Amino acid sequence: MSIGNPKLLRLFCITCVYLVVAACASTSGLAPVDDQSSRLRDPVKSYRTVVAGDTLYSIAWEIGQDYRTLAKWNNIRSPYIIRPGQRLKIKSGAKNVSKDASQAKSYTRYHKVVAGDTIYGLARTAGVSVKKLAAWNNIKPPYRIKPGQKLRVSEPTSRSGKTRSTKAKRKSGRKSKKTSSRKTYVKSSVKSWGWPAKGKITRRFGQGRNKGLEISGKKGQPIFAAAAGKVVYQGSGLRGYGNLVIIKHNEEFLSAYAHCDRIIVKEGDVIKKGQRIATMGNTGTDTVKLHFEIRYRGRPVDPEKYLRRR
């Protein structure tokens, strides 16, 4: 056969184009979830500059660290508010960031009201009651606030740096110690866990470098909160997770729900066990699935050890 034949030449060109496109497609795969948290934006650096959408919890999740440890490294107090442009220490051996640490203290203690803020929303974000937040700022019912107003959003401290409630507990003696130990016991465990979605487990914890469970399903099917808690992150800023929701269940346990198609909760929302939080999708990956993780003090643990057999 002669390649000079117009029909054969056309067929040859089409075949070449097809092979080039196929080759490109095969080398442009999406980053797998089990690989993402070991590759940071700046993997060799000891500091991270906060960008819009970051939370202390999402950064701690990405570096595989307990959020409380990250907060301690940067002198950040509850409710752990960070701001774009803030520089955070993300490795234990790094020097303290003195300038930004002092700024972080300011961020965690005060909030400048912007349009759309309400005292109810700020109280929910800070994790305190409306009455307590109002008392800290001498605001009386009906609790009206205005843009530009500066509000204290964490418990007032004395010059020694100790909170007033801590002093009050010490004065109350044995009774306060019992209450404190009871609270610590509640925070140390989650009472029960439920399955976050229906579907077949396609990949288990520890297979390869997988840090959770992968559950297959159909696009748009519901994803549920595995336990009661508070949404501390929702977004797509973590490499390899796609649209992601992170829920804090207590001081030690957090869970994550990755590759969501649509997220129907927002940061600060208080969630009940079994509540619908998102729909299944394939954001950040090549197949429709839910990647589910449970972390204890910042470290991945096997979800199947906490979930009931089905």
Task: Describe the secondary structure blueprint for this structure.
Layout: H1 6-26, H2 33-36, E1 47-49, H3 56-63, H4 67-73, E2 87-89, H5 98-109, E3 110-112, H6 119-126, H7 130-136, E4 150-152, H8 164-172, H9 174-187, E5 201-203, E6 213-216, E7 222-224, E8 229-235, E9 244-248, E10 253-258, E11 260-263, E12 270-271, E13 276-280, E14 289-296, E15 299-301
Antiparallel strand pairs: 1-2, 3-4, 5-6, 6-14, 7-13, 8-9, 8-12, 9-10, 10-14, 11-13, 14-15
Helix pairs in contact: 6-7, 8-9
What would you note in describing this structure?
It is a single chain. Strands 5, 6, 8, 9, 10, 12, 14 and 15 form an 8-stranded antiparallel sheet that branches. Among the domains are: 47-154, LysM domain (Membrane-bound Lytic Murein Transglycosylase D, Chain A), CATH 3.10.350.10; 201-305, Glucose Permease (Domain IIA). It starts with 5 loop residues before the first helix and ends in a 9-residue tail after the last strand. Strand 8 and strand 9 (244-248) form a beta hairpin. It has 9 helices and 15 strands. It is of the alpha+beta class.
